[in-house]
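Hi there,

I know you've been waiting on this one. I reran it after we fixed the sequence typo, so this is the corrected version. Both the input and the resulting structure follow.
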Amino acid sequence: MISSKLAATLSRLDVYLLTPGGALDAVLLAVSLIIAAGVAHRLRHVAAAQEVPSSAAVRLGRGGLRRLIFPMLALVLVAGCRLAVAGYSPAHLLTLAVPLLLAFAVIRLLAYGLRSLFPALPWLKALERSLALFVWLVVALHISGLLDGVVDALEQSALVIGRTRISVWALLWGGVTVAAALLIALWIGRVVETRLMASATLDSSLQVVLSRAARALLLVVGGLVSLQMVGVDLTTLHVFGGALGVGLGLGLQKIASNYVSGFIILLDRSIRIGNMIAVDNHRGQVTRITTRYTVLRGLNGVEHIVPNEVLVGSVVLNESYSDPRVWVGLKVQVSYGSDVPAVLRILEDAARAHPRVLADPAPRGYLAAFADSGMDLEVGFWIADPQEGTQNVRSDISLAIWRAFRDAGVEIPYPQREVRIVSPAAPAASS
């Protein structure tokens, strides 16, 4: 076995290094490590010079991927040198270096995968150290020849549940296999999601639907494959499926309804990211659509988390469903002695001068009604960015109208009431 051979190599390694074969192994190992380090440094330097601005998570993932270059390249070079000198030398030193470099590469790969999937995990570094310790422990047991004995001991230790006997080794191997399959599925899902989100030809809602569906499908496939690899009979999942159906029927209707509603919203594209909507006294811009809820960011900065079921079952006012332009009206009252055509031109000019007001359709003034204290006028205009708010536009234009009225002498009347006191008729004179 290769483990016993490595154990024998360790016992006489000091003698072996003094032989010509040992010296050749040492030279080949040093040259391989130097070449791998030089190539990795050069590639990292070139990549850093061509780096484009991106998010912290993307930069973290790229940095972890670059760290894989050295151990992977060194492993390939050392393995190639070992094959090249196999006919001339026992290559004990190169044989010992292969599992060490492989463990180094596995640790770097695990760190890259975890940082790509969970960049904001608070205990990420602690998890990385634990996994690195586990990998080095396995390599040490393998090199020392104790790994087979440890595996046999774990297989002999078992948990008996009814008529089922489950060994500790089966539990450990199953946990590692399932975790690895799920991590690979999540990583592939992240890659697919990144590609879809970067596509300029797909609608934003369709991008979200495809990315969510791809991730769910990959997780299901990864879970089933990992369970099959550890020897779990998939027919036993029928019981779990029945229990899940009962749970959905008894207490998970709302959760299931929200998930189904989320896919409906994403597929029919009635609500898109960036739309300005109002539902159930909540108004804001859609900033995120998930399979369970939708996030609305109000103009005051408050974010409303609305269940998707509410959006599907309620009347939604979408201010930018087919056209982002919104009509805004502003009312003002002037006295009956004012020149109405001139006042209407003042209203239109004040609205037209605002930078957020569209020139087409042009602002238009109206004589709305004859009120008790004066004439009600209204100016209507269109804006293309309702997510920036309408109250600020109203305030700016109202201030401009007040200044123009003051300069032109237009009177804004106060409320007026005319009270008449009628004296009662004098009593008739007595005869």
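Quick highlight: The mean pLDDT is 76.

Best,
R. S.
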